[in-house]
Amino acid sequence: MNPTAPTEASAGPLGHHARFVPATADGLAPLLALHGTGGDENDLLPLAAMVAPGAAILSPRGAVLENGMPRFFRRLAEGVFDEADIVRRANDLADFVEESRSTLGLARPIALGFSNGANIAAAMLLLRPEVLAGAILIRAMVPLKEPPSRADGTPADRPVLILSGAMDPIVPSDNAARLARQLALAGAAVTHEILPAGHGLTQADIGLATSFLREHGTLGAVG
């Protein structure tokens, strides 16, 4: 088998469709690639390979369909989320990651999420932070209006990079700022960058994500 070729990952508790790219370099934290609305398990593989060359990549497809488009959780309208479904899906995805780690022999991953994928990653950080070693959240917004308090203090010192667009028509600037505060209050080490961009991915996002992973993407850095 070609070790650099994407392969089908073992199905998790919900039978997630997923792709797995084995590592080709030692000492790098794996990435959990989480696509946006209408994407699939293939969408973020090129981005993940670009920002963390040689890292293993686990890339699941969202288990919810909205007008035929995969998502990671239900929404009631643009920017209005079904929070009960978010809790369910974040826990299901966390279980999938844990099962996949056991099957594939992976360390805790750093989430790389775009839009809807960034939102489910943020929910995982708030609900199941022990599953992730950190996160890059591109165009994320608040997934839970009132996140649970966590007596154990996690995600203590988890590195989190939030990349927002100043001209994003979907994510209001105050919403992204509130997410940064939520995660910081939960104990994450948050860096929030606001770029001269809309909702789409830009070269600046790629550069900042690459720099973040150079600093935090080794196994020694994330523990």
From TrEMBL:
Pfam (any one): Abhydrolase_2
Keyword Hydrolase (UniProt): yes
Classification via InterPro entries: AB_hydrolase_fold, PLipase/COase/thioEstase
Keywords for the protein's UniProt record, in alphabetical order: Hydrolase
Gene3D superfamilies the UniProt entry points to: alpha/beta hydrolase
A GO MF label: hydrolase activity
Residue intervals of the Phospholipase/carboxylesterase/thioesterase domain: 70-216
Name of the protein this chain belongs to: Alpha/beta hydrolase
Protein source organism: Fulvimarina uroteuthidis
Lineage, uppermost ranks: Bacteria, Pseudomonadati, Pseudomonadota, Alphaproteobacteria, Hyphomicrobiales
